[in-house]
Amino acid sequence: GGGLLAQFNLDTSSKDLLNTDYFAGVPFSYQRGPLSYRAYLYHQSSHLGDEYLLHAEPRRVEFSYEALSVTGSYEPNEWRGYLGGEVIFRKEPHDLKTLTAQAGIEYYGSSPLWERGTPVGGLDLKSTEEHHWAVNASFAAGLEFRGDPPGLNRYIRVMLEGYKGFNPHGQFYTEHMRIGYYGLGVYWGF
Asked: How far from the centroid of its chain's Cα atoms is residue 147's Cα?
């Protein structure tokens, strides 16, 4: 698995790129009945954007690490709960704290609420040793529209979402101020 998360300053005329976090890893998963487990060995590195470097003149931090994340979940029906943790074992900077705890609940409806859209939602709680175990919360709720035939697992989700907690972007891990945002997301699954 892999991906990147980019953060932009939309208040500037050129929509300055502030930070990009890169992820790459290998997940191992196992499921038996309603129980499933995942171990995810991954690398993360974080890089400041050029425009941000030119205008803000920040103290640059070499930020990267390798970590092992382990999560277990229970999904007896339309609800799924999960609990897990993470440990960082190689890190830069060296004073980065290594432990994370995470828990959450998700709902995947089976009956359409509007047209062919079924309700979906979730709440994720994450706490890191780096921020003295303060809870960071993200939520999403909306509708999922499945494609035909149903077994293909293609969908579009329209979600209201939000976050309240410390800045999750790597280069800003030392900023001990809380942020929050709310918005609308559209996701395609194929």
From this structure: 25
